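input
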Amino acid sequence: MSFICVECAKDQNLKHFIENRGITGDCTICQNNAVKVVDYENDEFFQLIKSILRFNYSEWEYNTHLGGDGYDKLFYGDKNIFFNESRAVSEEIYEDLVLFITDGDVYEGYDKGISIFSGYNKYEMRNMPLVSIKSSYSKDITKLSSRLKTENYFDLEGELKAIIDNYSTSAMTVYSKGSYFYRARIGVSDKKRSFSGGFETELHYEPYKNGEIGAPPPQFASSGRINRLGVSFMYCATDKYTAISEVRPHPGDFVSTGKFSLRKDVRVFDLSKSLLLEYFHCDESLDKYVPFQNLVDLINKVVPPSERQHYSITQLIADCIRQLGFDGIAFRSTVGEGINLVFFQSSILEFMNDENEVVCIKQVKYDYDPVPIIQKDYLYQ
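output
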């Protein structure tokens, strides 16, 4: 048997697999002793590696017949999302790990394992290339989203709720009583200039607190990613930086921050975590994972103010999750490193006096990618 440890793994799913399934032993790759390891010649490990590949890459990115650089190239250099190659004590030892994977089966039965090539049908015609899970679409969710343009949301709740309910157990995260979260609001409750020896000195600020920084009353609740117009939900974050970033302040703005703790244990539908370890065993399972990933993508999609109509589907998702008995939703922030949480009842949170402060925004950074430019000699629809 050959072993790999948590530190030699790079992908988070792989790390969690080793932590959850591993034993204490010696790592073949880095040769550290008495660490958590799994046998990398095990079939479960092999199927997980292929499922991580299928999640992140479409076939044309690695199939040389479709213009890719090669299956084996994914395990080296900048493209390597799987392993910490530099930790290997020798090139030969790392190559043995890669060879075990790349020499394994690439075509598997639909309910038996993960295939990484689409192959040919019985008429010797190439099947459609495999699309990465993160780029795939659930036909059912796509149709429901489209139907919202012509149908009332409450007429679609039953169908979407049935889809979401498939993940009620695997996507549930329980936050215990006393867990704390942060909220932010642009502005301050009061400001006063101090005097010393008859001279004006610096300004002092009073942050918003209690209800001032809590969820707004329903009559003042504007339409948001999770809540409908006139519905008051409590938006929070797991850390202060993310909470501040989520209110989109400008340089020079003063922002009040507040800390809240849970009054009881709560059940949250968690769209911030990967469920790949629940669905990595075969292609049939991966296909069942696609709708969940679509829910993640819809909730996390960056929506400019001019396209807030997109919120119709995310608000419907939230309605269904609430009706399934969850206390809130968790999802990753697009502007911070933390997790956003939205609780359906603000009364389950208690304002804490510590860490109630005012911060001044010094700068805001932007991250951007170029997009394709319209070319005159191209055909467009």
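quick obs: Residues 3-119+127-133 form one domain.
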